[in-house]
Amino acid sequence: MSQPQEGLRGNPLRDVRDRRLPRVPDPCALVVFGVTGDLARKKLIPAVYDLGNRGLLPPGFALLGFARRDWGHGEFESLAREAAEKGSRTGFRDDVWQRIADSIKFVPGSFDDDAAFDNLSQTLIDLEATHGIRGNAAFYLSIPPAMFPTVLKQMQRTGMADNAERGGWRRVVVEKPFGYDLKSSRELNELVDNVFTPQDVFRIDHYLGKETVQNLLALRFANTLYEPLWNGNYVDSVQITMAEDVGIGSRAAFYDKAGAARDVLQNHVLQLVALTAMEEPVSFDAESIRTEKTKVLGAISVPKDLEHYAIRGQYDQGWLGGVRVPSYLDEKDVPAGSTTETYAAVRLGVETRRWAGVPFYLRTGKRLPRRVTEIAVIFKKAPHLPFSQTDTEELGHNQLVVRVQPDEGITMRFGSKVPGSSMEVRDVSMDFLYGESFTESSPEAYERLLLDVLLGDATLFPRNEEVEHSWRVIDPLEEFWAGRKPHLYRSGEWGPAAAAEMLARDGRVWRRP
Ligand code: BG6
Fold first, then answer.
1. Of the residues 92, 144, 304, 360, which has the maximum number of CB atoms within 10 A of its CB?
2. Could you read off the pLDDT of 431-447 as tens digits, one per residue?
3. Which amino acid residue places its CA nearest to atom 6 of ligand 1?
4. 268 is catalytic
């Protein structure tokens, strides 16, 4: 047997498997609950199609939809086809679709309908003979969290969740938000764990499926350049921004109960903190990565002075892209006088030797000037500048910015001499753009994650401890905000003035992404 090369020993990216080779899952069924919903139509079905188009679906595959519709396979097939045509990333081809269409099944019923679940269970058994799925199935809960208990109990009752006897695997995919707070997330977890074994539970946070987010690991752990600087000796602060220009659309029923902190801070943004701040994993397997992320999330501290360091806002009317947009309170189905936040900014600490004293400023909001997600590592200023003050008047902090989306890439900002006879130093940018360096386009986050579920690879799925630590960060903020009114901010502006004051208090400013 060949030995690993000496030079590769101790490299966390080393893996006996060549990860560049495409992996095709075992024959299986994908069962989607809530298949007529937005997520299924806009993301899941197009992702299934794209996997099929890339040859990554197994020969024995079935897509099963379950929803409260008086439909047969035909109606479901046309909904799925339309969704794939509209949402596919790799271009719609009739022959590819035909192969998937042959594997489509629809089971009508409501979640409290025993007969419908018996039918679903029988359909899965039948698929073993007709489609050779060998007893393997992944269940995707694309449904409101309030419905989880009913559906899980039905799966337990019918024995659908446990396939040990037949020898196949059974996995469940749970969409965020995982609970509403620490208490409810524990209850939810207990419930899921009663029905599925922990390694078969896949909690989806689609940010982890984004190419640029995974690149953070490559950037940090495949290079020597950054590691010596990646700590409080050199880093002044970290700013993470997840901004959206859209409003809440037609999601008031969900959003008004959640708000920005529960909707995205608790999951997407804290996961970005974890990947930015974690220590190097001993290997690149799921457990090692999740262990390091868990440690960071467990080390996050919430400021005592929440009045000044936990700011929330709600969008007022304004202009975006030349269009007049309504206030949050005027959005369809938002209850009068709602105090739900559509913007949240907070200063957190990470209490480890690496990060002691480095503030992590996080912000997220809807109806901000543009859609942009980025992680900016802001370095300390040089301790001594052998220039006159006027030479460096326009020199800021060095920055390394990971542009998660759009314009995926990395920017470095540093000082450079302005051409001419005087010694004037000014900030310049150096950019790496995915689109320029690679010809391959990135898979959609859901495409990547769905494939990982079918392959049983949990690397990019947060484990339960991560979710609980994240709620420990969010719960005190929510308690502090309860009963207080959010600051208003005009749509099309970068959030409320209080968020800018929060940084000004620390002698800093938000980056303008
Ligand atoms: C979802 C949130 O998880 O992420 C939405 O529920 C948000 O409110 C969305 O709009 C943003 O995702 P992306 O991939 O467009 O940044």
1. 360
2. 999 888 888 888 899 99
3. 263
4. yes
